[in-house]
Amino acid sequence: MVGEDGAATPEAAQPPADPSPGSGGGGYDGKCVFCRISRREEPGTALLPCESEGLVCFRDIRPGARHHYLVVPIEHMGNCKTLKKEHIPLVEKMMEAGKNILQQNNFTDLNDIRMGFHWPPFCSISHLHLHVLAPASQLGFLSRMIYRINSYWFITVTFHLLEWSLDSMD
Ligand SMILES: [Zn+2]
Ligand SMILES: [Zn+2]
């Protein structure tokens, strides 16, 4: 939820949307497109089967690869800059869901995938989302630029997890 770590993110300081009846509690921002998608309020974006509780998957609206999915927590939470160590299990769950969605779509070479977060401000949507792209070896030129491993604007997950574990050691 935004309130808990709001101090670190001026962007997240928008007034909370009035909770719509029956939306199942907090973490919903009616102005956020990913909140609406995850609650099936955007007819243009179909949710893909995703067995992970609390997460949804759907196709990126502007695919950068043959397979390009987004894994999104249903509860609104800020972008990857607001992630903390305690979010590692969530991120791992998101990665797991990303692999599952690839396998469900008959992509099984898990060495040829790219998963990561866009580092603000190179991120158009502040709701946390994991990009899942495959095959990584066939990314087009533009996609290679945008989703380049550990570029300033695209932080691949394993790198980031490593950073977190180092953080937690001191
Ligand atoms: Zn949201
Ligand atoms: Zn993004």
UniProtKB/TrEMBL annotation:
Q: Which family does it belong to?
A: Belongs to the HINT family.
Quote the protein name from its UniProt record: Adenosine 5'-monophosphoramidase HINT3
The chain positions of domain HIT read 33-144
The family database entries (InterPro entries) matched by this protein are listed as: HIT-like, HIT-like_sf
Alphabetical list of Pfam families matching this protein: DcpS_C (PF11969)
A GO cellular component annotation in the UniProt record:
cytoplasm
Origin species: Chelonoidis abingdonii (Abingdon island giant tortoise)
Which keywords, in A-to-Z order, does the entry hold? Hydrolase, Nucleotide-binding
Q: Where is this region: Disordered?
A: 1-25
Molecular function per GO:
adenosine 5'-monophosphoramidase activity; identical protein binding; nucleotide binding
